[in-house]
Description:
By secondary structure, the protein is α/β, with parallel strands linked by helices. The chain has helices at about 1-15, 30-40, 60-75, 95-105, 120-130, 145-150, 155-160, 175-195, 205-215, 225-230, 235-250, 265, 280, 290-295, 295-315, 355-365, 385-390, and strands at about 20-25, 45-50, 80-85, 110-115, 135-140, 220, 255-260, 270-275, 320-325, 330-335, 340-350, 370-375, 385. The chain has two domains: about 1-140, P-loop containing nucleotide triphosphate hydrolases (Rossmann fold), CATH 3.40.50.300; about 145-395, no CATH class. An eight-stranded mixed sheet has the order 6-8-7-9-10-11-12-13, sandwiched between helices. Strands 2-3-4-1-5 form a five-stranded parallel sheet, with helices on both faces. A hairpin with a 4-residue loop joins β10 and β11 (about 340-350). α4 (about 95-105) crosses α5 (about 120-130).
Amino acid sequence: MExxxxxxxxxxRLRERRRFIQVLAGPRQVGKSTIIADVLxxxxxxxxxxxxxxxxxxxxxxxxxxWDRARDxxxxxxxxxxxxxxxxxxxxxxxxxxxxxxxxxxxxxxxKAILSGSSRLLLAKGPSExxxxxxxxxxxxxxxxxxxxxxxxxxxxxxxxxxxxPGPAGFIRDEKRWKAYIRDxxxxxxxxxxxxxxxxIQKPALLRQLMELGAYYSGQILPxxxxxxxxxxxxxxxxxxxxxxxxxxxxxxxxxxxYSGSKVRKRASSPKLQVFNNALxxxxxxxxxxxxKEDDTFWGHLVESAVGTHLLNSVAxxxxxxxxxxxxxxxxxxxxxxxxxxxxxxxKRGGRTHGRGMDSFLTRYPGSKVFSVSAKADAGSMxxxxxxxxxxDPLEYL
Length: 398
C-alpha cells in the first residue's frame, strides 16, 4: 500500500543522524498528517508538533517559539523532533527555517525537522530558493485504486465514479453529502487557502471557472482558443496556461502537453485536461452513480480520466513526464516518458488491441512501447484489463 511506503520512508530517514529537513508535500486530504502521526507514534523521540492551519496570526516569532520548545527537549533528552503542518501559511517560512536549522548545526542542537504542506508549488518555492541542500522532499500523491479497495472496500466502478479521497469515502451512499464535502472541504480550501491567499491572482473568478471547465472536460484535449470562448473575462492564453500550472501544482488539474520528442515544442500544444482525482469531476455533476453508469458516453470519459489520474499521480517525485500525442486524425490517449523511453496507453471500449493512432506513433517514434487498457478485456487478452492496470505501477511499463 502506497501510504505504507511513504510512512516507512519517513521513519527510516528520521532514524538516521540529523542530516536533512524532511518535507512532505502534496494535495489536501491525502494523508500527510496521518503519515507523520504514525511515524511519531513508533519513534521514541520527544517532539513538538503544531499546525499552522489552527493559528490566525503567523510569523517567524511563532515558528521560532515552536523550535525553541524542541531545542529544550533536545537538551534534556539528547534529540527532539519539530513538526509543522501547513508550513506554507507562514510568511517567509523558508528563510526562518534556514536560520534556525543553521543555528542548530553550529551549536550542535540535535533537532530534526518535518515540514508538511498542501501545495507542491508553494512548498517548492521556499526550499528551492532558501533551503537548497538542506531538505529532502517526499511527494505524497492522491490515493490509488488499490488503497481505496483495501481500506474502504471500493469496487472498480466506485473508484471510477467517486475517486480516491479517503475523508468522504465512508458516506458515498449519501451522494448529496459526498458531493458537498468534495466541493466545500477539498476544492474550496484548495483554491482559497492554497492559491488565492498565497499567490497574486488578478482574476480569481477566471481560475475558478477554469477549474470547473477542466473537471468537466477531464481526459479530453481542449485548445486554449476553445477555452477562451467558454470562459468569461478570459484574458489570453498566457493567463490560462499560468492558472493551469497553479492548479497542477496544487494537485487539482493538469494540462497535459503534446509529446513531440522535443521539449521546445511541448508548451505550444493544446492541453489535454486531466484531474488528479475523479472525485473532482463529479462534485457538481447532476447525475448519481447509477444513472451515470447507464450513460455510456460519459462513463467512457470517466474511465479514460481514471486511467489518466493513475498515470498522473504515478509521476509525482519521479523524473518521468505524462503527455498525449495527436497528429491530424491520429491520436494516442497518454504517453508516459523519460529521457530514455516512451510508453503509450490507449483506453479502449471495443475489442481492437490498438488503433491507427498507435501505428502512426510507432512510425514516428519506433522503439516505443504500446499498451491498450480496456474495461472489457478478458483474461488472456492482448489488452490490459482496467482493474489490473489500476492496481499496477505505471512506471513498470516504461
